[in-house]
Amino acid sequence: MSDETHKTGDWTEADLDLVVGDYFVMLAKQLAGQEVKAAGHQRALRFVTGRPGGAIEFRQRNISAALSLIGVPILKDFAPRWKLHDQLIDAVDRQLSARPTLIAAAMRPPVLFTAREPLHLVEGPPPAFEPEQLQPSPRAEQLIAKFDPAGRDHANGLLAEAGRAAVLAFEQRRLREHGRPDLADQVRPARPPVDLAGHDILSFKPTGEERLIVVKTTTGGVGTPMALTDAEDALWTTRPDVFRLYRLYDLGRELRFYKLRPPQAAPPVEAEAV
What we know:
The protein is α/β, with parallel strands linked by helices. It has two domains: 1-106, no CATH class; 108-274, no CATH class. Helix content is 48%, strand content 10%. It has helices at 2-5, 13-31, 38-49, 53-69, 86-97, 100-107, 111-114, 131-134, 138-147, 149-155, 157-177, 181-184, 230-238; strands at 122-123, 188-189, 201-204, 210-217, 243-249, 256-260. Strands 1-6-5-4-3-2 form a six-stranded mixed beta sheet, sandwiched between helices. A hairpin with a 5-residue loop joins β3 and β4. It is elongated and about 65 Å long.
């Protein structure tokens, strides 16, 4: 213990497992709606690892960054800190693989079963991603492939339906607020095979032009990877004038979203109508 108390060099595998495992204990409490007393956990970790609190918090924020790459909710007290090392990713992989029920709980937050109205959306700007989010290391790529956040979200029908309902209500409300209740009444889910393939919601600009909206929903954070289907990708390419992607994230906390559109659709001077 005394040797570790003064150690400031590389972390041992055992110490990383302790910190990562403790993070997941706190995360399980957060997902269950229980109070998380991070200070008490911090004191215990300082005692068992001999590491100072600042060094432990750095690792906890690294864990948040790793979880952001694989679409697992993070502890709200520990904002992601990038510059991930393979040894930390290895520990996250080991500890998360030993807790399959944690991902299951993260994918099915209570709000999916208790909400009687469409979930309320809070809009924000597209995020500015860190370099490691845009170009993960080979070891981080392995972690993403193993836990496949885009595939998990796509297969979660209940999650996808909640996201589509939230966007439908948002679009209807937006058009009514802009004095177009006539258009709000025409907003609806896509109807295959009558409608063009590759979108979820038919909506409109206040000026009357169509918007074909694809909705991608995750319980993970703003940086959770997503993927377009072949039909969505084709629509993105062939109809950039009407294609819009709504990325919903943090479902289970404050459900937020941002919009993306193909670069070809961007007007040269003025922003598009709301």
